[in-house]
Amino acid sequence: MAVMDAISRLIERGVSEVFPHVADSEQPAENLAVRLLRPDRPLRIKFGIDPTGSDVHLGHSIPIRKLRAFQDAGHTAVLIIGDFTARIGDPTGKSEVRRQLTEDEVAANVKTYLDQIRPILDFDARLEIHYNSTWLSQLDLGKIAELLATMTVGQMLAKEGFAERFSKEQPIFLHEFLYPLMQGYDSVAIQADVELGGTDQKFNIAVGRDLQRQFGLSPQFGLLMPILLGIGGGQKMSKSLNNYVGLAEDPISMYSKLEKIPDAIIPQYFELLTDLPLDQLPENPRDRQKLLARDIVGQYHGDAIAQETQQELAAMVMQGQMSQADLVPEFSLQEINFPCKLTYIIGATGLVPGSTEARRQIQGGAVKLNGEKITQIDYVVDAASELTGLILQIGKKKFVRFT
Q1: pLDDT number for residue 98
Q2: Are 309 and 251 in contact (CB under 8 A)?
């Protein structure tokens, strides 16, 4: 019974779909639960990250957390760093072609990725890390032609994003067709048994299954997880929408954002971002918010820091430095005439006496925006939209959110 419960948690909690499902086939080999119950060897669980940016947020953490769950169950986590595919860019869900990154840009992003996900994965056991440039850069024109011959243009145009762009007569470049094939070839190269991804990755994961068959391998299972909503609800978590919580954010910034999560999306956050029993959560919505914030901050900064952060913010509320409704006070950018130097804006918030002190704080490394240290003293902000929604931090205890 305990084994079945563990398997259920692996393939049901925080999972939107497992494919193929047992109902789709009469073959026991096509039933992931059966494979997990009676494995002849540890399964190889694949998850790929394309380092197209420098930050990882909570939305990105969901499949990585599932990868860790498979690690803990005794299976092999295979993390693919898409240093080659990142230079193409995943066209999934995009209404236009993505800018191709240079090798230097990708290399710079890779450096930050592993540090940010280190609190999630066990780097000491049952983990393989591969860079897909290892095999993709070795493909000659003949092998690329062989990959292209496995799919038709009609099949590619069925992919989300491609179909929309084609119907609107927007350009689709041939190199974009290579992305799902190369991601699929990653599954061939590492002989994946299961591939993890968001619900928007079903097409790419299915291509991996097809290519594995082409190369004489057993096709992988796909395990899809929901897309996390941003901290305000409504839209998916995204850095461009300023509705995200970064894994590298400082504890107070992270906690203050999570403690304000709307009631409607709290269940999703508990299910996807924690291991807490869902049937034992507090009844009071306010208590649920505080538990959620403390648990997630604890995952990335340690339980002691999470507890200290909660107590520190509670004390600031009691002392009247913050309101209960908004743990981070707001500053309206309507008071600023743009373009404007960031040092002047910092001084205008009242967190420091003026722009001169703002310069000194930047030089001392005490100024952060959404957890990222500011180092450029003469930085000019061109428009309010560049700062709207961001949290400015001076030192350890001074915060303001730009509106």
Answers
A1: 55
A2: yes
